[in-house]
Amino acid sequence: MEVPGQGSGQPTVPPEPGNETPPPVEVSPSGAAQGNEDGRLRPGAKRVTFPSDEDIVSGAVEPKDPWRHAQNVTVDEIMTAYKQACQKLNCKQIPKLLKQIQEFKDLAPRIDCLDLKGEKLDYKACEALEEIFKRVQFKIVDLEQTSLDEDGASALFDMIEYYESATHLNISFNKHIGTRGWQAAAHMMRKTNCLQYLDARNTPLLDHSAPFVARALRISSSLIILHLENASLSGRPLMLLATALKMNMNLRELYLADNKLNGLQDSAQLGNLLKFNSCIQILDLRNNHILDSGLAYICEGLKEQRKGLVTLVLWNNQLTHTGMAYLGMTLPHTQSLETLNLGHNPIGNEGVRNLKNGLIGNRSVLRLGLASTKLTCEGAVAVAEFIAESPRLLRLDLRENEIKTGGLMALSLALKVNHSLLRLDLDREPKKESVKSFIETQKALLAEIQNGCKRNFILAKEKEEKEQKLQQSASMPEITVTEPLEEDPAEDSRDSSATSAPEEGEEPLLTLEKRISVSSPGRGHKIFVVTRVESLPERAANASQNPALAIKPELLAPRANGTIPEAVASLATPSIGSDPKRGDPAVCESSAHDTPLPNGLKTDFARALPEASSDGDGKMGSCTAEHELSCSKNEQELEELLLEASQDAGQEPL
């Protein structure tokens, strides 16, 4: 019996009882099933059958191995493949790239860097690079300022994602990668497990591109460091990024400088981010418009940071004493913040006073930046009170402030009782004073501050070595520094210190076997710092017994105009019989007064004033002015001179 329409002539087997199958379905050309009442198909109808489950999958094809070209590859093979690709695509070879290929040595696992910075990469040039990416991987791929367009950027980012070409990628200063470029970059961020660092400075991330990046950051991304300086983030892009980062548990460093972030919506988004994200350790907000109103939002987020944020950079955000009041109330609640940079904000003396109690109540801050914050001697006294109270402060930057003799005296005395501060940055050149001898006094005080930092440095090193012997560890946790102070990249050329700003990658501040040479953010001026470990000079044994070195507590407070009381000024100069080469800070620490000191200073502040120490070329500073002031003038003449000086100084603006 044949089935109509089959024409095969094969007999059919009648079904067994109970196993009858439903009648076949006739499919008409229009798709409607047609059949006779007896279940037979009409002539010309089609029959549909399905294979058994075991026969559905007939085979499988493995995906292409992205590294099939990288097996036992040689430099010559890479060079040949790249040249052939350029010839095929009719594009110019890049001489800088050819030179780098020739210098490739160990091709596994990753070569240090592929540097294409400044080379113009059009779409064809990007396509030719695939012959390199498919054969070798890199730690750093530098595409800074390569004039990438949407097509070229999309192609490159797809290659980097597919071949996992880099752990550190620099795409900065490419202003025309467009929406498709950012979309490909976001896909790369989401899919690449090896990408840890992305630098997109000066690469605008606009409203229509931000959602792609935000989606990539919300999903578990491998990124640890993200640079988005000057990327036009203010407004909706920042809102999308901040919302996404609330759920990101991998990102550790976020750099958002120069984005014109405002003190309202933008700062509110940042405050909310800090409330929910405790994984970000560095937040750099320098050169924005946070203002005091924005700082209030950020402080609300900081209060929730029981762990997480280690470094906060607020450099140049138009913050005033009002904002410092918010910050002062917040600092006692923060437990992880170690570096706080407030440089280049008009904080003023009142702002430092608002900040002082919060700093004293804080138990985590190790580095404080107050460069160019419009401080005078009055503000320096408030800072000195904090130094005296702090058992953990390591670094303090007070450059570019009008701190004169009175302020330097307070700082010097604070260092007598502080044993943690390893670096105190001050302008190298003394400030102008009406009394010429005060210039030499400033130099002597600066030298004494330097010696105090040297002493603390040696004590810290000895403590570390002792701990190493006891525990066989690399260094003590409370001494080891893992996060260097943020650096401001601009204006690195002014001359105001003894050491220059560190290069990127320099050893941390407190790796005690190395020199201390990490500068604060900002102008990177030459500053007055300890740059090497030297043996401390010995002070004469009778220094503590010299009555000229005793200071009455009521005379310590400097006047508002920057001058100091007459009796203190006369004692600030070395005595005639003293040896300027001798001076042991430990001896000075033994002399203290029981009478309470003004401005909350401890009685331990009543210490010997410093003697002039050697300057940079090894010669001793001139003490002629001090000798004339203390010896050739009688007491009445001295008082008249200082009175006249204080009146003149009072007319100068602070």
Automatic annotation (TrEMBL):
Residue ranges, compositional bias (Pro residues): 12-26
Chain intervals for the UniProt region annotation (Disordered): 1-60, 468-516, 573-654
Annotated Basic and acidic residues bias: 625-636
CDD domains linked to this entry: LRR_RI
GO molecular function: protein phosphatase inhibitor activity
Family matches, as InterPro entries: Leu-rich_rpt, LRR_dom_sf, PP1-Reg/Actin-Interact_Protein
UniProt KW keywords: Leucine-rich repeat, Protein phosphatase inhibitor, Repeat
UniProt-listed PROSITE patterns: LRR
Coiled coil: none
Organism domain of life: Eukaryota
Family annotation (PANTHER family): LEUCINE-RICH REPEAT, ISOFORM F-RELATED (PTHR24112), PROTEIN PHOSPHATASE 1 REGULATORY SUBUNIT 37 (PTHR24112:SF9)
Family (UniProt): Belongs to the PPP1R37 family.
Protein name: Protein phosphatase 1 regulatory subunit 37
Organism of origin: Accipiter nisus
